[in-house]
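Problem: given the chain below (287 residues), write out its structure.
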Amino acid sequence: MNHEVAWNWLWENVERVVSSTVPLPRPYEKAVRNFMFGLQEEQLQTIRIKTYADFFTRCPAGQEYFKQSTTRLYFILDKINEMTVEMFASPLKLVEEISAVGLRHVGYGVPIELIPPFVACLSDTMAEFTTDDMAAKAYSWCLTLISKILNRVIMEGSTVVMKAINTNSEVELKKAISLAPRGQRAKQLLEVSVGTQSISPLYWAIDSGSLSVANAIIEDLLIIRADRDVYYYGCDALFTRHPEVLHRLCNSAPTLLLPLFDGLIWRSRLTSHGFRRVNYYVKHLIQ
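Solution.
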C-alpha cells in the first residue's frame, strides 16, 4: 500500500472520530449534571451496594484488590461519580487527578483487566436509575473516558522497577534495572512520571514495606560506574530528587541508614604506606 494512501486513510478516520465527538460535551454535560444531582441518597446507596455486588459476581478476582472497609468503597464510588461531572467543568484539572490516582494504582499493582468490568457494572447500574437515554449514554461515555485515561496511566507507569517493587523481590529489581543504561539508572529508580504527575519508586518501596527492594535501590544508586567518557554516581540524583531523604529514613526506615551512609564513602583498592585513600561524599548532608 502506498504510504500516502495509508496516511490519508489514518487522518480521515481521526477526522471522522473527532468530528463526531466534538459536539457531544455540551449536551452530555447538561444530561449528566441533571441526572447526578437528581439522585436521592436512598438511590445512591442502592447504586453503591448493587455496583460492588455485580462487580464481585462478574469478576471475583476484584475482591483481592477491594479489601477496604465498606465506607471506603462507597467513598471511591462517590468520587467516581463526582469525576463524571467534573470532567466537563475542569477537564485539565481532572486529568491530573486521574493521573495521580493511576500512579497510585501502579504502586498497588492493580491489573488493568479489572477496569472494564468495573466500568460496565457501574454504567449498567446507573442506567437502571434513569429513563433518559441521553443521561445514561452521557454517563457511560464520560466514565469510559475516565477509565481510558486511568488505563493509559497505569500502562505507562507500570515500569519493570515498579513491578519488582510490587513483588518485593530484590532479585527481580536487579534484573529489571540491569537493562537500563548507566546514565538512566538513577532516573528509573527515583521517578516514574506520567504527564505532570510522578511518584518515587524508592519512597513507594519504603511506604509499602518493601525494605529489601528499597535497600537494593539505595545500593544501586550509590555504586560508582564509568565508561570511557564519564563516571556515573547517583548521589546527586538521590539528594536532588529527595533532599529530605535522610529525615525520611530516620522516621520510616532506619535500617536503610547504614547502606545510605556506606554508599556515600569511596575506598581505594590500593594502599600506600599502610594507608588507603577514602572519599566521603557528605556535601548534601552538611548543607
